[in-house]
Specification:
Radius of gyration: 41 Å
Number of strands: 0
Order of helices and strands: HHHHHH
Shape: rod-shaped
Largest sheet: none
Number of helices: 6
């Protein structure tokens, strides 16, 4: 047969007046606003003197939530070059605009062969 646990008698303590929900946090916020340069440990001591049991870690959490100490944001990554954004084109690719100009040039010379001969002659002169 299993043993029974001994009944522990709890000493009746007078029930302190219950604080409204969020009273400790409100007290910490007021202390942080009034003393922005104090450390969380010092704020915890001040709030404990007011009758709220708290720790420096709890004060740090409240401080972080209200934005007492803001962190720097990381720099945005550098924008990628525009050439990488579109499809890669070969270096000898010709645009539509250049093709239209070549068409007009061929029309002026009468044929593509004559336009090509004129361009070859120009290339020999420029070299």
């Amino acid at each position: 047969m299993p043993r029974r646990a001994k009944a522990i008698e709890v000493e009746a303590t007078p029930v302190a007046a219950k604080q409204p929900h969020g009273a400790k946090t409100a007290a910490i916020k007021q202390a942080l606003i009034a003393n922005p340069t104090k450390s969380p440990t010092e704020i915890a001591e001040m709030v404990t003197e007011q009758g709220f049991e708290t720790t420096a870690n709890y004060v740090s959490g409240v401080k972080a939530k209200i934005g007492g100490k803001k962190r720097k944001k990381k720099a945005a990554p550098a924008a990628a070059p525009e050439a990488a954004a579109g499809p890669a084109l070969p270096k000898d690719a010709v645009s539509i605009g250049l093709l239209q100009k070549a068409k007009k040039l061929a029309a002026q010379f009468g044929s593509i062969k004559e336009a090509k001969a004129a361009i070859d002659a120009l290339a020999q002169i420029l070299d």
